[in-house]
Write a structure and sequence with these properties.
mainly alpha, 10 helices, about 0% strand, disordered N terminus
C-alpha cells in the first residue's frame, strides 16, 4: 500500500525557503539605498590625506575606510588617477570657491570690501588646517596636485587683491597677505591657534593700510 504524499511538510519547506530568501544562485536586486555617494568617497579621501598624506590615497585604503568594495569605487571613478583629480577639484571648491562665494554674498551686490573681507576671515577660520597642510605637502611630490595648488594660490591672491583699494601695488600687497596666511598655517597649525593666525593677518593689514 503506497504512502500518501506529505503535502503539509512540502508546503512547510517551501515556506521556510521563502522566509530565508531565494536559493543561492538566484540573483537579487542591489540595494541602491545604501550605495555610497560620490561625495562620501571624496570626504574619505580628505580624511586619509590629512592622516596619512598622499601615499594613503589608494583604492584599498579608501574601500577599507568606507567599508565598500572596489566595485563601488569604480562605480564613481575610472581609476585612482581620476579619483585624485576629483579629490583636488573637491578641495578647490570647498576650500576656495565656496568661501569666495560666501564673501561675495555678504556684500549683497555692493562693492563693500570690508564686509567681504570680514566674512572671508570668518569662513577661512573654519577651514580644516590639517587638510590644507596635507594638500600642500602632496603638491611637492605629485605633479597633478602641484598644478591645482598653484591655480588655487593664484585665485586666492587675485581675490585678496580685489579687496584692496586700487593701487599699483595691490597685487603685491595681496601676495604678501596670502604669504602670511600660508606661513601662519605652518607656524600655528593647531585648531586652538586660530586667534594667533588671525592676529598675524590683522597686524599685516594694519601695516599695509598705513602706507
Amino acid at each position: 500500500m503506497s504512502a500518501r504524499p506529505r503535502s503539509g511538510t512540502a508546503r512547510t519547506k517551501r515556506n521556510e525557503r521563502t522566509a530565508h530568501g531565494p536559493r543561492s544562485g538566484h540573483k537579487t536586486r542591489p540595494n541602491h539605498a545604501t550605495r555610497t555617494a560620490r561625495s562620501d568617497w571624496l570626504s574619505a579621501g580628505l580624511e586619509l590625506l590629512r592622516s596619512g598624506g598622499g601615499d594613503a590615497l589608494t583604492i584599498e585604503r579608501l574601500c577599507t575606510a568606507l567599508g565598500r568594495t572596489k566595485g563601488a569605487f569604480y562605480h564613481h571613478f575610472g581609476d585612482i588617477s581620476s579619483y585624485h583629480e576629483a579629490l583636488l577639484g573637491h578641495w578647490e571648491q570647498s576650500h576656495t570657491e565656496q568661501l569666495i562665494a560666501l564673501a561675495d554674498a555678504a556684500a549683497e551686490g555692493k562693492p563693500d570690501s570690508a564686509a567681504r573681507r570680514e566674512t572671508l576671515f570668518r569662513a577661512v577660520s573654519q577651514v580644516d588646517i590639517g587638510v590644507e597642510l596635507a594638500i600642500h605637502a602632496w603638491s611637492l611630490r605629485a605633479e597633478n596636485a602641484s598644478r591645482v595648488v598653484a591655480r588655487v594660490h593664484a585665485r586666492r591672491i587675485a581675490y585678496l587683491a580685489s579687496l584692496r583699494r586700487a593701487s599699483e601695488t595691490r597685487e603685491r600687497e595681496a601676495e604678501l597677505e596670502y604669504a602670511v596666511f600660508i606661513g601662519a598655517l605652518h607656524l600655528y597649525p593647531a585648531p586652538e591657534d586660530k586667534s594667533q593666525r588671525r592676529r598675524l593677518q590683522r597686524a599685516l593689514l594694519t601695516l599695509l593700510d598705513r602706507k
